[in-house]
């Protein structure tokens, strides 16, 4: 196998300049997300979320973005999961969108706030029924002896909810990440990447500046 230290490529797809920026970061994020969707990237809404547990140990995992606007970025999860437990101790969170095929990435830093049960229920009921059932079958992040046992739990839940709607589990919820910093990265030739960071001021306005690569 070739040495991983020799694996590299140049980034020449596009640039990012001051004229490309928007007054606030959400319009630019929307444009970039649309570009990712239009480019038929696999899972364009996939994002890595990083949390920190009560011992100070960071942890990362990939989830799907399920909504965003100027108030924040929304995702859903089992409230007994590790990510939810981490957030109960420390609500600080970081999101990362890795749009490699476009030589782009976006990093979001903010605070995770639980969303209302009404919004959670509305989204849960919009999910495919097998996904709803899977939420009942899985105690997310907890140990299980075998995949067979998990499938058995799924079959039991499927039989239980064979008729009618699947109710919202009490242990299922969602979070809105209220951002205070959003960074946009566009790969550049010779590692001279374009980086701009938006920072929210105490007055609630957004300021942007270029960062060195």
UniProtKB/TrEMBL annotation:
What positions does the entry give for FMN binding?
A: 61-66, 76-77, 82-83, 105, 140-141, 185, 195
Q: Name one GO biological process term.
A: pyridoxine biosynthetic process
Alphabetized Pfam families for the sequence: PNP_phzG_C, PNPOx_N
Q: Does the keyword RNA-binding apply?
A: no
Q: Which reaction does it catalyse?
A: pyridoxamine 5'-phosphate + O2 + H2O = pyridoxal 5'-phosphate + H2O2 + NH4(+); pyridoxine 5'-phosphate + O2 = pyridoxal 5'-phosphate + H2O2
Q: How does it assemble?
A: Homodimer.
- In its UniProt entry, what is this protein called? Pyridoxine/pyridoxamine 5'-phosphate oxidase
List the source organism: Paraglaciecola arctica BSs20135
């Amino acid at each position: 196998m070739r040495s991983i230290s020799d694996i590299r490529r140049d980034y020449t797809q596009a640039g990012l300049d001051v004229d490309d920026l928007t007054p606030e970061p959400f319009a630019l994020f929307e444009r970039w997300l649309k570009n990712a969707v239009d480019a038929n990237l696999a899972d364009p809404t996939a994002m890595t979320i990083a949390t920190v547990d009560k011992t100070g140990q960071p942890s990362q995992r990939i989830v799907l973005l399920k909504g965003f606007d100027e108030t924040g970025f929304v995702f859903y999860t089992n409230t007994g999961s590790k990510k939810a437990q981490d957030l109960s101790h420390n609500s600080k969170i970081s999101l990362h969108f890795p749009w490699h095929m476009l030589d782009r990435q976006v990093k979001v830093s903010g605070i995770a706030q639980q969303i209302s049960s009404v919004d959670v229920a509305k989204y849960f009921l919009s999910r495919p029924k097998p996904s709803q059932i899977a939420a009942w079958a899985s105690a997310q992040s907890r140990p299980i002896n075998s995949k067979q046992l998990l499938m058995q739990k799924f079959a039991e839940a499927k039989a239980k909810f064979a008729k009618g709607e699947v109710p919202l589990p009490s242990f299922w919820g969602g979070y809105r990440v209220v951002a205070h910093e959003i960074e946009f990265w566009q790969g550049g030739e010779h590692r001279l990447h374009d980086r701009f960071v938006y920072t929210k001021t105490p007055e609630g306005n957004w300021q942007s500046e270029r960062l060195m690569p």
